[in-house]
Design brief:
Order of helices and strands: EEHEHEEHEEHHHHH
Shape: globular
Number of helices: 8
Strand content: 15-25%
Largest sheet: 3 strands, mixed
Number of domains: 1
Radius of gyration: 16 Å
Strand order of the largest sheet: 3-4-5
Number of strands: 7
Distance between the termini: 50 Å
Structural class: alpha+beta
């Protein structure tokens, strides 16, 4: 069955909850799943995104993908390359930022996703032990949001 441009699937294939992430990874191989989609993958927070959030290089051409719906974010330098973990979803290698990098990205893009989402992600990442304080602090420096995250981290810890 044809799913989209260059995407095909077996008619009787088992579809998981993260099927959209596998489709997005096939459509944009150099992209990395980020922000709300990464939070959902790690089961952190209550956000359920209706589109796949994907990070690409800031100089890369805009991808022409219609299915699944995607929100493209532009990252550069260490913000793009640090904290990438490769998972296998439905037999497809999918690059996703680790929980600590995802929380730091939430604070970096707090004006787009909301400060309440970033705070919820920080609170749950620490409470559920998805990452350590040192990892959070390291990625806060990489994303240049250490001064923004410091008061919230001090209040939670």
């Amino acid at each position: 069955m044809r799913i989209g441009r260059g995407l095909y699937s077996l008619p009787d294939a088992d579809v998981t909850i993260h099927h959209g992430l596998a489709q997005a990874a096939k459509a944009i191989p150099k992209g990395v799943i980020c922000l709300l989609s990464a939070l959902r993958f790690y089961e952190t927070g209550t956000q359920v995104p209706h589109e796949v959030w994907m990070a690409i290089d800031r100089r890369a051409a805009r991808p022409r993908v219609r299915n699944p719906r995607m929100r493209i974010m532009r990252f550069s330098g260490k913000a793009l390359t640090e904290g990438v973990v490769e998972h296998t979803i439905e037999g497809v290698p999918v690059k996703i930022y680790n929980p600590a990098k995802t929380v730091a990205d939430c604070f970096k893009y707090r004006n787009k996703i909301g400060l309440d989402v970033a705070l919820e992600a920080l609170r749950e990442a620490i409470y559920l032990r998805k990452c350590t304080i040192d990892e959070l602090w390291n990625y806060a420096k990489v994303c240049r949001v250490a001064n923004v995250m410091r008061p919230y981290m001090e209040a939670i810890v």
